[in-house]
Amino acid sequence: MVRPQPPTPRRRVPGRRVPVALFVPAGLGLLFLVLPLVGLLARAPWATLPQRLAAPGVLAALRLSLLTATVATAVCVVLGVPLAWLLSRVEFPGRRLVRALVTVPLVLPPVVGGVALLLVFGRRGLLGGWLDATFGVTLPFTTAGVVLAEAFVAMPFLVIAMEGALRGADTRYEEAAATLGAGRWTTFTHVTLPLVAPGVAAGAVLCWARALGEFGATITFAGNFPGRTQTMPLAVYLALETDLEAAIVLSLVLLTVSVAILAGLRERWTAAP
Amino acid sequence: MTTAPDAPGTAARPPLLDAHLVAARGAFHLDVALRVRAGEVVALLGPNGAGKTTALRALAGLHPLAAGHLTLGGVDLDRPDRRAWTPPERRPVGVVFQDYLLFPHLSARDNVAFGPRRRGAGRRAARALADAWLARVGLAGHAGRRPRQLSGGQAQRVALARALAVDPTLLLLDEPLAALDARTRLDTRAELHRHLDAHPGATVLVTHDPLDALTLADRLVVVEGGRVVQEGDAADVTARPRTDYVARLVGLNLHRGHADGRRVQVGGLTLTAADAVAGAAFVAFPPAAVALHPAPLDGAAGNVWPATVAGVGRHGDNLRVQLDGPLPAAADLSPAAAARLRPTPGRRVWAAVEAADVRAYPVGATRGR
Q: Which of B77, B106, B107, B118 is the best mutation test for A, with the most CBs of A within 10 A?
């Protein structure tokens, strides 16, 4: 008996070659992004690495960076997700203006953002004086100030990613929920949010990565106090003035930890059903 | 409000659903009056873009009424004149959406339990209710599955269970069988019929498939261009179409003319009909009743007219011949008759139809009987 042969799998599908016009710039782009990393690795003082890692302040700065970036992301999720929902689901006058305002921290130089935060939350700022007098809360030059500066700069990333996810989500599921008796809040928590969970996750990762690398607003608003407000980017900047090799080591630590965490999260989310 | 000019004998019972749906969607205007009694299944039938889905969305509260009213079980849900609308989540309405819209992140059980949970049932009670409903639609073993693990027919049944689990006074179905393949549709239609039969509330079904409408509904409401063009039970609508759309659906030749007794003037011809009517009248006859001859019949007293073959196509075991001429019509020929006549496009023939096969009925009101 002759069995029909299954078609032999081909290594390359004919007519599916990558066009040179795309391949070349793509390769150049990748090279452009990767070369600086190569530079860091090439100049790293591998011999003295263990001693330098054990140097006082490195671990403290790393811990502070991870802590503040995570708290800032949490703040952004709590405030940014409802904001994104409002922008994508509710018609209100001036919505376009609000959407433009949300992206202001993206275009503002972070140092200017830090100054602006000082003008509002500083001791003599619009709200800072009142916060100090009423609650005894001072934000500038504190760890909370670091969180505030990072959240300010990173929130647009979350809102934009989340709004995109919400706009892409099929609103008819929300209508189906309404016909089953779900009010707007229940629909949001039970239907909308689970449907856009991947978008929230992507936005939160982007937000966290931006917060982790934050420098300008932090140093302006929160200062550079080791253990309290000196995050990794600030430590790198400080080290650059005196000791290039120390700066390289700090950068490598930041890079390794963040890449490991992002890769780990990505693995988890893409593996999830 | 006008009194319901419903079918005689039932006019005394007030309808469970009494609605006059007036809504706008862009340049499109919907103006449809709908009355459905308890236990009755009404099909909104019409071509694409006729406003069926807008009407359904208005009933569910997903599209606001601009005017008119919506009363369900004696309760005013929408009264635009009093600026009073009821949001969808507070209506005793269940909806089966065209592509079901089962929540992809929930199991079949939790999809069905969603409605009861929102309406106050505890988690365990809602799940027990969901399991009972899934068992009723024959999916007891699939409660734990996610929607994407279900076949089209299964998803349809979960969607039906989900809509019925809230014990709706009004059940709405939007093209409930359109997303299914032909084989599944046959089984699902029979099963759906059983569940609609058992539903004590009012049911409104939207479809563009006449077979769904005829098999599932007690009464048909034909909508075209946002208006009701015909209304009646299956027998009435299929025997006496009032628009070209309905005539095409039910496969009849339909013409409008002027009647004087059994003689009806149509397109310059005088046809003899089976029914006596006076004034503006429709005449309808099935293509199978039209005989074609190569020459005028000697001494034929029936309805005979000259025609030109415009096109030929298959229709079941027969050939369907489209005729041009004073009375455009379709005629069905058996293969044997076709072999004798050889109806090629452009050929001149004589069409004949017996008076007994020609139904005439007054143009008058859109409501049947």
A: B118
Distance CA A120, CA A128 (A): 6
Residues 6 or more apart whose CB falls under 8 angstroms from that of A191 comprise: A173, A174, A176, A177, A182, B103
- Does the structure show a pLDDT above 80 at B366? no
Indicate if B282 and B237 belong to the same structural domain: no
Q: Is the pLDDT of residue A228 over 70?
A: yes
Domain that holds residue B177: 17-244
Chain A residues with CB inside 8 Å of B89's CB? 178-183
Total count of domains within chain B: 2
| CA of A156 vs chain B CAs: smallest distance (Å) | 28
Encode pLDDT of A181-193 as tens digits: 999 999 999 999 9
Q: Do B87 and A182 touch (CB under 8 A)?
A: no
C-beta atoms surrounding B57 within 10 Å = 23
- What predicted TM-score, i.e. pTM, was given to this entire model? 0.81
CA A122-A124-A128 angle, 5° bins: 50
Test B88 with A183 for CB contact under 8 angstroms.
no
Q: Do A177 and B114 touch (CB under 8 A)?
A: yes
Please tell me which residue of chain B has the smallest CA distance to A171: B101
Count of structural domains, chain A: 1
**Is the Cβ pair A178, B89 closer than 8 Å?**
yes
Per-residue model confidence (pLDDT) at position A270: 57
Inter-residue contact B18 to B78 (CB < 8 Å): no
Predicted confidence (pLDDT) at residue B5 exceeds the cutoff of 60: no
pLDDT digits (tens, 9 = 90+) for A230-256: 999 999 999 899 888 889 998 998 888
Q: Cα A55 vs. chain centroid, distance in angstroms?
A: 28
The Cα B187–Cα B209 span in angstroms is 16
Taking residues B263-276, report their average pLDDT.
90
* Domain contains B3: no
Look up the CATH number of the domain holding residue B190: 3.40.50.300
**Mean pLDDT in residue range B164-175:** 96
Chain B residues closer than 8 Å to A194 by CB = 103, 105
**Chain A: residues touching B (Cβ < 8 Å):** 170, 172-173, 175-183, 186, 190-191, 194-195, 197
Assign residue B342 the CATH number of its domain. Answer: 2.40.50.100
Residues of A in contact with B95 (CB under 8 A): 176, 179
